[in-house]
Amino acid sequence: MNGVPATTAIPYGGDYNPEQWPEEVWDADHRLFGKAGIDTLTVGVFTWSLLQPAPDTYDFTVLDRIVDRAAAAGRRIVLATGTAALPPWLAKAHPEVNRTDFEGRRHGYGQRHNFCPSSPAYRRLSTTLAGRIAERYADHPALLAWHINNEYGGACYCGLCAEAFRGWLREKYGSLDALNDAWWTTFWSHRYTDWSEIEPPSALTEHWRGPNHTAFQGITLDYRRFTTDALLGCFVAEKEAVRAHSPHTPVTTNFMGMYRPLDYHRWAPHLDFASWDSYPPLDAPPTWPALAHDLMRGLKGGAPFWLMEQTPSTTACRDVNPLRRPGELRLASWQAVAHGADAVLYFQMRASRGACEKYHGAVIGHAGRDDTRVFRDVAGLGQELGRVGGVTLGARTPARTALLFDWDSWWALEMSDGPSRLVRYQDVVHSYYRAARTAGADVDVVPVTADLSAYDVVLAPLLHLVKGDLAARLEAVAERGGTVVTTYLSGRGDEHDRAFLTDVPGPLGPLMGVRVDEWDSRAAEWTNPVDFGDLRSPARLVFELVVPQGAEPVATYTTDFYAGTPAVTRNRFGERGGEGWYVATQLDDAGTDRVVRQVLSRHGLIGPYAEVAGVETATRVTPDGTRLLFLLNHGSGEVELPVHESATDLLTGKAYAPGEPLALDPLGVCVLRLA
Fold it and tell me: How far is CA 177 from CA 192, 200, 205, 221, 493, in A?
């Protein structure tokens, strides 16, 4: 089966670990779940040592009772394979299962994400456990979906991984000549003459000052790709073990949004549906989790995803862990739905009594009360989701704007020795996404391999590596009248991070109509204001010196010897009025807004509430063609908006006529079904 699990309403609930509690607590929990509208529980995530207490011993007694208890209460389960953390006996019996870190130290038993993905013992035992669980519960009436492992991550640098890496390279390149050419190993006398000479790039080999400083970008890029594939291999092996007994129940694993170590685009084809855990940075604006939601939706070609985890109140993994204020949980949950979530789930349902997550937020605290503010907020949202029912399920986002997100470019850019180590891929990508979203445009966040034919605007900031036929496909967007926007440090290298033997921005040059001969890099506090005529944007970090090759200046630098030269250009391309925009520096928000809004305006993509600060809009279209408009007020004050067409608020039942004012409270939400 391919797609999200079939439900009649938005699944509501989350991670539940009743194995930590005596069974009399379970009864109390389920009574509280009923009061909160909880209908879906993720169980078994960290149960390996419980289910397999010894190499040849399996005991499903407790898990049987957990699953049956959920079914008796009418709840569905997302059943995990329990393989995310090793049991102690496995690490003792097979020490090679423990990871070797970047500094070359073999770890002892402890923590989680603690297994070597190349270990035959781990692969054999984890897939055996997954298969036994699937065989036992495949036909259980409570089963809704399979949850493989948990939040895959980390890397290993042991001898097993070194040998696996060599095999991965042989398959990728076929010959040492091809590998040497890709990695440019004539530099520093690195030419390899035998596969056995290749070692993982680590603190003991090619790196200094940490993972982002490497002598050879090619080998480090490939090791990150290899690590992605090695962990993916573990997922696929467990999925196949599950599929052997449960061929039709959807399978997923929980991603972590913009998680740098793993290229989720390489994983996406192997998931039946995408799911992820949303824990935004403390100071993140609302467009930050929105970008991650849209990235997750883009993994499966725009299909809905599941919000597998979020905190109902606070986290426990940071130095400072602020509490979600009244209304913030509701707003964050509806924001996920607005961007494509077909489930709203939490970590965790009941607070752990001990260990590092005992202070992590939970629907039910240690005292088991139902009169706390957090429980009331969760219950209130449960009632609201219940009233909406299944209206939003399967709905898609009708975006005409795409933003390209590329892990390879992210990795290559941030380990490049020049022009600047101060440039952060996520921050720049977010700045262009933020500009489009605050202008009211719906945005699909897609891989560089995506079909771009449905989009009028393609935003491609920091497209550092240009791979395959991407340049031609971007030109095709402009040839049919669309607009492509890219930025400084784009078009710098091929898939191996080798510089193009042509003018910067490489294959993007004809579309952008510019040539970049030099680039200036300065400290973070130094600025060069960019003049748009009626706006000055204090640009920072990198300043490329652009020589137009047909493009016209839109804005110019104002200081230094290159004052008056173009900082932003526009190039007419093709016979249908297409355009290529090149932004040669890091603009501030106002400057980025100017560029993006001018592009969106050209295609009629500015939303009706673009001038209302703090109000986010998002559109979804249901399988039967019903249009849903989500209005989210992230501000601290009430706003009043005119309704532009006949609509009904699904949360209150109130009908609106065109032109009628709609009031949004602070942190307020409205879901309009448009006539």
Answer: 8, 19, 21, 18, 20
pLDDT band at 208 (very low <50, low <70, confident <90, very high): confident
Please give the pLDDT value at position 1. Answer: 53
What's the whole-number mean pLDDT along residues 97-106? 97
Q: Do 380 and 12 form a contact (C-beta atoms < 8 A)?
A: no
Q: Which of 527, 528, 610, 601 is nearest to 566 (CA)?
A: 528
Reply yes or no on whether the pLDDT at 556 is more than 90.
Answer: yes
How far apart (Å, rounded) are the C-alpha atoms in residues 344 and 310? 8
Q: Which residues are 493's β-sheet partners?
A: 465, 499
Give the Cα separation of 299 and 313 in Å (integer).
Answer: 28
Output the six-digit token pair for 539: 């640009």
- Are the CB atoms for 97 and 107 separated by under 8 Å? no
Could you tell me where the DSSP H helices lie in 244-372? 264-267, 287-299, 328-338
Q: Is the pLDDT of residue 317 over 90?
A: no
pLDDT by residue (tens digit) across 600-659?
999 999 999 999 999 999 999 999 999 999 999 999 999 999 999 999 999 999 999 999
Task: Look up residue 31 and give its DSSP letter.
Answer: H
Provide long-range contacts, Cβ within 8 A and 24+ apart, for 316-324.
316/356, 316/357, 316/358, 316/359, 316/360, 316/361, 317/279, 317/356, 317/357, 317/360, 318/282, 320/282, 321/359, 322/282, 324/361
CB 388 within 8 A of CB 6: no
Pairing of strands 457-460, 483-487: parallel
Which residue would you say has higher pLDDT here, 208 or 427?
Answer: 427
8 Å CB contact between 500 and 467: no
Cα distance between residue 116 and residue 230, in whole Å: 9
Active site residue 575: no
What is the set of domains in the chain, with CATH numbers? 12-87+131-152+252-388 (3.20.20.80), 401-602 (3.40.50.880), 615-674 (2.60.40.1180)
For 484, the token pair is 């492509």
Mean pLDDT of 293-311: 98
Closest CA to 448 of 491, 489, 417: 491
Residue 334: closest CA among 85, 40, 668, 602: 668
Edge-to-edge order in the sheet of strand 627-633: 615-621, 627-633, 669-674, 647-649, 655-656
Mean pLDDT of the chain: 97
Q: Is 611 a catalytic residue?
A: no
The rounded percent of the chain whose pLDDT value lies above 90 is 98
CA 406 – CA 396 distance, rounded (Å) = 22
With tokens 């002598």, the residue in question is: 215
pLDDT confidence of residue 113: 83
Give the phi and the psi of residue 103 in degrees, each rounded to 5. -90, 0
368 within 8 A of 319, measured Cβ to Cβ: no
Dihedral pair phi/psi, residue 315, rounded to 5°: -100, -175
Q: 3-state SS string over 625-670?
A: CCEEEEEEECCCCCEEEECCCCEEECCCCCEECCCCEEEECCCCEE
The pTM of this model reads 0.98
From the candidates 206, 238, 309, 384, which is the catalytic residue?
Answer: 309
Mean pLDDT of 111-127: 95
pLDDT digits (tens, 9 = 90+) for 461-482: 999 999 999 999 999 999 999 9
Nearest to 293 by CA among 344, 337, 343: 337
Alpha carbon distance 436, 547 (integer Å): 28
d(CA 252, CA 276): 10
Question: Does 595 have pLDDT greater than 70?
Answer: yes
Q: Is 159 helix (H, G, I), strand (E, B) or coil?
A: helix
Helices assigned H by DSSP within 300-424: 328-338, 373-388, 407-414
Compute the average pLDDT of residues 63-87: 97
